[in-house]
Task: structure prediction
Amino acid sequence: MAPTLGGGPQSRTVLLAVRIAWFALPLTAGPAIAHGLQDTSTPVQVVASVLAWLAWGAVVVAVLVPRTVSLTALRVGAPAALAASLWATISAGDVGLAEVVAIAWTALLAAVVLFVPVVTDEFVDGSSYGPERRMSLRTPTPLFLGPVELAWLLVVGGVTAGPLLLAARQWIVGVIAVAAGVVLVAPALRSLHQLSRRWVVFVRVGFVLHDPLSLADPVLFVKQDVRSLAPAPADAERFATDLTGRALGLALELRLRTKVTLGLIERRNQSRDVVTDRVLFTPARPGAFLNEARERGID
Result:
């Protein structure tokens, strides 16, 4: 069966806007980056241009084929485009029309990619099959206080720093940067991709909570076992198993007719079993999630 996207007209419109914004980057951000590179050596210009075009082309494929892997690529690429525009502006030493357009365009693109939940849902649901519908979970707030930014910096810096330093004839530092990139980029990228793999997937018999940050294994909740699914009351965390990761936004409380065993991750490669009949989690779009659940007979 071929993958299907479950979003409505609004979702498809937002996805189209992201595609257009990314396709237009060579025209909107390209002049500013070229201006920022004009005082550098020819080897640096060539290497920077090759890296920029490779990154742009990779994300073009990602936005044309929405998948969870594509979401990770876009989450890395969009902020990198903004960072490149800011660097070009600082490097050029003045702010002209090209720099204003580049910063405004890439800042808007990064904001949409990172903070509009419809975008995340469209890419996550792109990996669904048949009657499935995947809906993303919000990123735990503590991860935004350094870990996510550090992982992104390691990926972008690890890919670009070494080649650029070597092109600038900084041989020793360049070799060290390349070696560091080889070691650090893969684990940092895996960490970022874990955030794209957090979702709830509706299946014929109910829904599955898939959260590799919180759960050792995905958990299936059969619709006949669901007592209620609704916004969580203020004191819910006192009685329910909390899988929200302190994410911002409306948390939902799932109440079950029978208790289930959850394998909660406490630290790397370690988990503990918890038996519960009440679970808290935070979909990126709780209203859309509840509507989908009701349409499937889960309420």
User: Anything to note?
Assistant: Residues 211-295 form one domain. Confidence is low (pLDDT under 50) at residues 1-6.
